[in-house]
Amino acid sequence: DARVTQTPRHKVTEMGQEVTMRCQPILGHNTVFWYRQTMMQGLELLAYFRNRAPLDDSGMPKDRFSAEMPDATLATLKIQPSEPRDSAVYFCASGLAGAYEQYFGPGTRLTVT
Amino acid sequence: GDSVTQMEGPVTLSEEAFLTINCTYTATGYPSLFWYVQYPGEGLQLLLKATKADDKGSNKGFEATYRKETTSFHLEKGSVQVSDSAVYFCALIPGARGNTGKLIFGQGTTLQVKP
């Protein structure tokens, strides 16, 4: 049963600390998305990759957020330095280019104190 | 810009009641439309989709019809179960320049079904 996995599932950190979230897309999927979910803003697209190349990161605060795909089996989202307003659930999703369905991971719940 | 508007929740129903969750959209061109469902503590799952006008998406007893004339994609189910309790998201992928995969979500509607 192929699934998107995300680690860690929960993260509590202090303001100013670096946070790294990891995602393993479904094997064979060539498109990876990062979303953020908050009560106030709902679900927002932060960035997405196709064939490991970033296609759009316009939803991401550039000064503190960075997203990469070191290889086809790993996507990372880093926040440095973290701030309380970054507290949210971060979802990774993967899919195939040209297909409509995106498969979501269980999310990383980040709390910045 | 492109956007999706859903009815506010929570929606509370008794088991076997009829469900409607309203969704309207604003988009240029011909977007593809989706309903995703999020169960507590989990990620989103695609429930159904429609990629062109008048298409009806259906799955697990849920249905939604792509109505271009009213820019709507309302979710319906004839008889809800307690296990349908979840948050439902209406979403679109803009139609311009092909399928980029960039989902734009509505705010979500919480459904609570009581026995």
Folded structure, characterized:
The complex is a heterodimer of chains A (113) and B (115). Chain A has 113 residues and is mostly beta strands. Chain A has strands at 5-7, 10-13, 19-24, 31-38, 42-50, 53-56, 65-71, 74-79, 88-95, 103-104, 108-112. In chain A, a hairpin with a 2-residue loop joins strand 5 (42-50) and strand 6 (53-56). The termini of chain A are far apart. The mean pLDDT of chain A is 93. Chain B is mainly beta and 115 residues long. Chain B contains no helices and 12 strands. Chain B is globular. The A-B interface holds A 4, 31, 33, 42-43, 45, 48, 55-56, 91, 93, 95, 97-102, 104-107 and B 32, 34, 41-46, 49, 51, 89, 93, 98-108.
Morphology call of chain B = globular
Find the biggest chain interface: A-B, 22 and 23 residues
- Please estimate the helix content of chain B: under 10%
**What's the helix count of chain B?**
0
Characterize the largest beta sheet of chain A: strand count, sense, and whether it forms a barrel. Answer: 7 strands, mixed
Strand content of chain A: over 45%
- C-alpha termini separation of chain A: 36 Å
Give the class of chain A from helix and strand content and strand pairing: mainly beta
Which class best fits the helix and strand makeup of chain B?
Answer: mainly beta
DSSP helix fraction of chain A? under 10%
Write down how many β-strands of chain B occur, each being a DSSP E stretch of 2 or more residues: 12
Low-confidence stretches of chain B: none
- Tell me what portion of residues of chain B adopts beta-strand conformation: over 45%
Enumerate how many helices of chain A there are, as a single number: 0
